[in-house]
């Protein structure tokens, strides 16, 4: 039986044991030793507690830093995506219906000068471009969120 003044050789491997960095053989050795050594058991428990505290501390600071992101947990995210999709689709359908009616009226009306028709075409192209840009931004934002999640 060893004393506190003479720590076991295994004690140095406890950190690696906790991190799962040991080889299977080393791990087995530490495990077997732990069963018969209260000193190392205590040491391991202390290390675990310390790491737990560190993890909690890191977690808390992450929470504070990423509060808006954490508020957007998975169900909320999906509801958000669903809501955005429905909103975009609805706005798109309603506005395109009205604008289509208006454009058709103007384009088929021969009393409308050509530059107004050109303006209408430009307006439509611009609208389409802006919509695609917003869509792309949303997709990029979603990708970035995913990346951040993995990093955490
Ligand atoms: Zn020991």
From TrEMBL:
<dbReference type="InterPro" id="IPR027383">
    <property type="entry name" value="Znf_put"/>
</dbReference>
<protein>
    <submittedName>
        <fullName>Anti-sigma factor</fullName>
    </submittedName>
</protein>
<feature type="domain" description="Putative zinc-finger">
    <location>
        <begin position="9"/>
        <end position="41"/>
    </location>
</feature>
<keyword id="KW-0472">Membrane</keyword>
<keyword id="KW-0812">Transmembrane</keyword>
<feature type="transmembrane region" description="Helical">
    <location>
        <begin position="112"/>
        <end position="135"/>
    </location>
</feature>
<keyword id="KW-1133">Transmembrane helix</keyword>
<dbReference type="InterPro" id="IPR041916">
    <property type="entry name" value="Anti_sigma_zinc_sf"/>
</dbReference>
<dbReference type="Pfam" id="PF13490">
    <property type="entry name" value="zf-HC2"/>
</dbReference>
<feature type="transmembrane region" description="Helical">
    <location>
        <begin position="78"/>
        <end position="100"/>
    </location>
</feature>
């Amino acid at each position: 039986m060893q004393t506190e003044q003479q720590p076991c050789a295994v004690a140095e491997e406890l950190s690696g044991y906790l991190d799962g960095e040991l080889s299977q053989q080393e791990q087995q050795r530490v495990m077997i030793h732990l069963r018969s050594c209260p000193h190392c058991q205590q040491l391991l428990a202390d290390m675990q507690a310390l790491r737990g505290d560190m993890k909690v501390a890191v977690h808390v600071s992450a929470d504070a830093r990423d509060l808006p992101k954490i508020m957007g947990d998975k169900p909320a995210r999906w509801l958000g995506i669903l809501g955005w999709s429905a909103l975009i689709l609805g706005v798109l359908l309603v506005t395109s219906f009205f604008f289509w009616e208006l454009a058709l009226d103007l384009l088929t009306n021969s009393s409308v000068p050509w530059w107004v028709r050109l303006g209408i075409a430009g307006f439509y192209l611009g609208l389409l471009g802006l919509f695609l840009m917003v869509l792309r931004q949303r997709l990029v934002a979603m990708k970035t969120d995913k990346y951040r999640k993995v990093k955490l």
